[in-house]
Amino acid sequence: MNEKLPDIKTDFALWYQEIVHKAELADHAPVRGCMVIRPYGYAIWELIKERLDKRIKETGHQNASFPLLIPESFLKREAQHVEGFAPELAVVTHAGGKELEEPLVVRPTSETIIHYMYAQWLKSWRDLPILINQWANVVRWEMRTRPFLRTTEFLWQEGHTAHETEQEAQEEALLLLKEYIDLCQNYLAVPVIAGVKSEKEKFPGADKTYTFEGVMPDGKALQMGTSHLISQSFAKAFNMAFQDRTGNLAYPYLTSWGATTRLVGAVIMVHGDKKGLILPPRIAPIQLVIVPILKKGEEASVLAAAQRIKDSLTNVRVQVDADDQKTPGAKFYHWEMKGVPLRLEIGPRDLAANQAIVTDRLTGTKKTISLDKLATEIPALLEAFQTQLFERAQANQKSHWHKAAKLAEFGPIMAEHNGIYQTGWCQRKECEEVLREYKATTRCLLDEKTFEYCFNCDRLSICDVIVGKAY
Amino acid sequence: MNEKLPDIKTDFALWYQEIVHKAELADHAPVRGCMVIRPYGYAIWELIKERLDKRIKETGHQNASFPLLIPESFLKREAQHVEGFAPELAVVTHAGGKELEEPLVVRPTSETIIHYMYAQWLKSWRDLPILINQWANVVRWEMRTRPFLRTTEFLWQEGHTAHETEQEAQEEALLLLKEYIDLCQNYLAVPVIAGVKSEKEKFPGADKTYTFEGVMPDGKALQMGTSHLISQSFAKAFNMAFQDRTGNLAYPYLTSWGATTRLVGAVIMVHGDKKGLILPPRIAPIQLVIVPILKKGEEASVLAAAQRIKDSLTNVRVQVDADDQKTPGAKFYHWEMKGVPLRLEIGPRDLAANQAIVTDRLTGTKKTISLDKLATEIPALLEAFQTQLFERAQANQKSHWHKAAKLAEFGPIMAEHNGIYQTGWCQRKECEEVLREYKATTRCLLDEKTFEYCFNCDRLSICDVIVGKAY
To answer: How many CB atoms are located within 10 Å of the residue B60 CB?
Structure first.
């Protein structure tokens, strides 16, 4: 079991694949591009979900559930939408032993069916805003898949809202963007760059897509989620008319926003090291593992002490590893692989001295702590761990985030060594297309302007843009 | 908006359909037999889920996620299983713009794909037990559908476990049965009859199916969930061999158990009355609604008092209905329809007297309570409400639960007036088949014996059985 992981520096993709497997986060399913999320991986997702769900509700939204299967004709009602999703659809053609009159697609996203329902519910401006979210599974037939990062089926939440005014919709889209950034930075400990997608990169059918992008240790960008201002053409395609305050017919302004199981992939990549995972305490299913050091004849008292420590740490997620078939060394290896932030060792001598040794997964620092002080010291160590992890991730982000004026200069370096580049852009598609030669895309437009000219042509830049290779 | 509901006594089915719509629990979806669970209905499901999930974890299980789409060949590996589910399958034949080499079925239940994965994970007896649950959506192409009670897609949890010994599997199946009964009786306030399904009625591929059945106000039975001992033929079909304690190859003993959004349907039917829903406080999204009685010039102080009351009831789910477009009467009607257990009215005169009037949705009893005592009285009233509701449901169950010796006598009465009948049975299929003539089935075998002979033939009865019409 103690084979080493592939080298994280030279073989990052293989390291990722191996750690997902070895830490028992997920397995390949016997269906192309699908994964099985194993209990340890799912517990991370549940903690992410719990936090995000709480904030979605606190900001005034309610959960609901819409059907998995969508009539094919619904997707065709919005031209850009069907063009964007058609190549990725999984289609149910037979059911109940018969061929269906109209095929049903397995939802790739739920705008169409949700807008159809909103049209039934929405009569007057008094019915607005509609603020609904759903936690669901969606299917997109992807070509190249990787556990968590891109899978044929994935889990996500998708919020769909309808508003009386464009400004309100705009505020809603930005509100959720802010929540997502808070989730990433303060819970996943992953710093993100937030901005707006280019016309080419935005969601099929959106007027505007806000994105938040993480920078991975290999210098590639990862789109971690999006928040859209949906085009009013959706509202029209689904006859979502309502009577406005002046008694006239009007169409609502719509948003949608989503975050997926991909977030787990970001956590794995951003924080992991050569020993395996490192989990941010706030989303770690186990925050502290207790390894009792068992000496013959003194097992019972040490195990009892381990249990007492666990019971006393009521606000910490603690596991006691009491397995008598494994050496402490094998246990250390196992829990390091699984990224548990803190390890506490206690043996007969420690117990006699009323103390324990606590080791930090991030730095390996050992600290001897009096048993009486664990209830205050452990939560403090976890908080410090969370902060340190975020700072380390920020340093990584910074090390890969370059500024450069001309693609002709930075393009070849980016193509070979990755990294993301902040530069100027005229916002014409022709210049965006050139990035392809370097396997890069625009990731997001920033709300700042430090370059005068476009990275490609001699036109003036409108605002800064982040370009880079992406997952 | 104040049209009356259909008569609950004479037109129960129509009453059900209307209340689901009017209380905004669910809507028909534009896909045959599917429903949209609206926020109020979904909030009930979330509270049921929260309680059940907590108990599933406390009894040692972990959540995970398995794929939605299952290769068609997997279902065919277990003969009884495919026979049971084949007529109900929805099949994906095309994906990513191409016809698939092997069709994929949308999971009707996940035994096959989960057992396939367990076979990869299970090497030695040390890996047992495997105790996994998933919260998921499943699709079964049903002929006659009704919101919550029987829908093409429904939400559920499905637990799947593997054990070293048959006895352990048996204990597991019974442990979950016990948890389900606790959930139904102590949270949904729905009394159930628990027992074993007949060979004909059991889950396709199970050795034994435990069931818990509710008795609806119209005298029909509702299967509320099941817990199965899965046949070892599954373990063999999926090559789930492991090395046992003696070093030999062995196959695990399996269970599966599930409960669905149908539970919401049971709550609607069992507790509702002519005014609408009545929700058990433990799963009511709103336990207390505050209706401020607004008099001109005194709105602000009354609204402030309502908010203060809400804020002081920290462990109660409270909503203040501050809508200034509606009369108190319209609000009373609305919240009665939605089944909120308690209503609190407060107007300027009450406020001056430091009191409020609390009305009980079940009996309509009004009580004047001092504002200083609300924090103790409201939780006590909610507890009493929960108990009363359960007792009323028990009385309903009792009124429909008859004992009778011979089908020839009770059959015609059952066919006309419903009701469930406890009787004797020889346990032969021939006699079970005769129930069809009365549109009835065996619902469950009981662990008692009060009849000497079979309800149909002259053979001896093996144990009592419940027969009746079912949803």
So the answer is: 11
CB atoms within 10 A of CB B189: 26
Structure tokens at B109: 């239940």
Q: How far apart are CA A230 and CA A161, in angstroms?
A: 10
pLDDT tens, residue by residue, A17-52: 999 999 999 999 999 999 999 999 999 999 999 999
Token pair belonging to B330: 């319209």
End-to-end CA distance of chain A: 30
List of chain B residues whose C-beta atoms are within 8 Å of the C-beta of residue A150: none
| CA nearest neighbour of A30 among B97, B74, B111 | B74
Structure tokens at A96: 């109940």
Which residue stretches of chain B have pLDDT < 70? 1-3
Q: Which two tokens stand for residue A215?
A: 């920078």
Q: Do A67 and B34 touch (CB under 8 A)?
A: yes
Q: Distance between CA B261 and CA B148 in Å, rounded?
A: 6
Residue B210, CA distances (Å) to A241, B173, B176, B216, B426 in order: 50, 8, 10, 20, 19
**Residues paired with residue B196 on neighbouring β-strands, in sequence order:** B210, B445
Question: Best of A21, A22, A69, A112 to disrupt the B interface by mutation (most B CBs within 10 Å)?
Answer: A69
Contact assignment for B94 to A90 by CB distance below 8 Å:
yes
Cα distance between residue A216 and residue A407, in whole Å: 21
DSSP state string for B52-101:
HHHHHHHTT-EE-B--SEEEHHHHHTSHHHHHHHGGG-EEEEEETTEEEE
User: Nearest 10 degrees: CA dihedral of B444, B447, B450, B451?
Assistant: 50
Q: Are strands B288-292 and B318-320 parallel, antiparallel or unpaired?
A: parallel
Helix (H), strand (E) at residue A342: strand A342-346
Cα separation of the two ends of chain B:
30
Instruction: Please give the average per-residue pLDDT across A325-352, as a whole number.
Output: 96
Residue type, B454: C
A-contacting residues in B 305-364 (Cβ below 8 Å): 325
pLDDT, mean over chain B: 96
For chain B, which domains are there?
A: 12-271 (3.30.930.10), 286-380 (3.40.50.800), 401-468 (3.30.110.30)
- What is the rounded distance in angstroms from the CA atom of residue B49 to the CA atom of residue B156? 9
Element (H, E) at B331: helix B328-337
* Interface-testing mutation among A24, A40, A42, A65, with chain B (most B C-beta atoms within 10 A): A65
Give the Å distances, CA to CA, from B145 to B154, B270, B471.
11, 19, 10
Q: Which two tokens stand for residue B417?
A: 């007036």
**Which chain A residues are within 8 Å of B68, Cβ to Cβ?**
34, 68, 106, 137, 139, 153
φ/ψ region of A336 (left if φ > 0, alpha if ψ in -120 to 50, else beta) reads: alpha
What are the two backbone dihedrals, phi and then psi, of residue A388, each rounded to the nearest 5 degrees? -60, -40
| Residue B143, amino acid | M
DSSP sequence for B171-231? HHHHHHHHHHHHHHHHTS---EEEEE--TTTS-TTEEEEEEEEEE-TTS-EEEEEEEEEE-
Q: Using N-to-C axis directions, what is the helix angle for A374-400 and A299-312, rounded to 10°?
A: 70
> What is the reported pTM?
0.97
Amino acid present at A293: I
- Under an 8 A CB cutoff, do B35 and A88 touch? no
Size of interface A-B (CB pairs under 8 A): 156
Q: At A319, which helix (H) or strand (E)?
A: strand A318-320
Q: Which residue of B has its CA nearest to A126?
A: B325
Contact A237, A22 (CB under 8 A): no
What is the predicted pLDDT for the residue at A80?
Answer: 83
